[in-house]
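Researcher: I'd like a structural prediction for the single chain below. Treat it as a standalone chain; there are no partners to consider.
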Amino acid sequence: MRFAYTIPMQMPSRKAVVLSHVAFEDLGSLEAPLRARGFQIESLVAASARFPLPQTEACELLIVLGGPIGVYDQEEYPFLKDEIACIRARLQARRPILGICLGAQLMAAALDTRVYPGERGAEIGWAPLQPAPNQQPPEWFAPLLADGLKVFHWHGDTFDLPDGAVPLAGTERYANQAFAVGDCALALQFHPEVSAAGLESWYVGHACELHHAGISAAYLRSQANLYGAALEAAAARFWNQWLDKFF
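Model: Treating it as a single chain, here is the predicted structure.
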């Protein structure tokens, strides 16, 4: 007697390389959709990485996360020069890359545009995005522009829109909150990856900044409890639709 059997389907092997700057600013809600697509995730601390990094050229996706330093702090933190060169090479190769907060600012610098302290002060907390004027937002970005949705912001710097980049969103305080370059590069000044629980580590890690800004962790926590679940749901749709473009 013959027995029929099926060979289980295997997810394709892919690699995502993550450049981080502080441990608690991590992939957050982006990790699960990456794992579901069969990604192996290699995390590197940018400050101690030995550039150049061959894996950032060979990987299917490069992700550059946030951190509490500025693009213009290169004398204090020389690795930033190498990190910008790494990002520039990825952009020139037109391979998928995502930058969040500092990662978005580093992408802007790699595209030879100005990154500087925001003239309207730090933007810390929850606020809605506004679609960029005179632009039809891509369908995959639409979940983050839903009526009533507030996303999380934590930045003091901003940037000019790079030449050739497509603006996607702004806020009342800062016009440039997201841009795309071609079909492969996405820069997000805000933080779609966060959760109310995950932000607890941020309040501790950035305690000094909160103190100097006169913002209480208790206030941010109350806002996260109000808006965090909706952001997680919207971000799940956004991540999956954006990743569907490539994988």
